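PROTEIN DESIGN WORKSHEET
SECTION A - STRUCTURE
LENGTH: 92
TOKENS:
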């Protein structure tokens, strides 16, 4: 199983710690910007980095809405259970 060193968590604050002031459209713009960069990436490594950037923005967005790390873990448990029920995940 992975530990925190193997699988670092995304950073959830920007350099000015002002994520709580972002509007919903600010978040959507930032996610879209990272996905556009992923589409334009020319190497496998660059594409991975841009997708990771998009994930970081999404985790930061959840944090700004009040989803703590514990709440996010519960959120992903529910999403995984939903996706498993829909047949989108491998059986355990
Ligand atoms: Mg980027």
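SECTION B - SEQUENCE
RESIDUE ASSIGNMENT:
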């Amino acid at each position: 199983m992975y530990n925190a060193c193997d699988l670092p968590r995304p950073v959830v604050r920007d350099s000015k710690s002002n994520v709580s002031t972002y509007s919903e459209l600010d978040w959507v713009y930032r996610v879209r910007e990272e996905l556009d960069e992923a589409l334009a990436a020319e190497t496998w490594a660059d594409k991975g980095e841009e997708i990771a950037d998009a994930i970081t923005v999404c985790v930061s967005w959840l944090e700004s809405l009040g989803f703590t790390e514990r709440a996010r873990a519960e959120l992903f448990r529910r999403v995984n259970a939903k996706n498993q029920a829909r047949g989108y995940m491998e059986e355990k």
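SECTION C - NOTES
Residues 34, 37, 50, 53 surround magnesium ion (CB under 6 Å).
Residues 30 and 68 are 21 Å apart (CA to CA).
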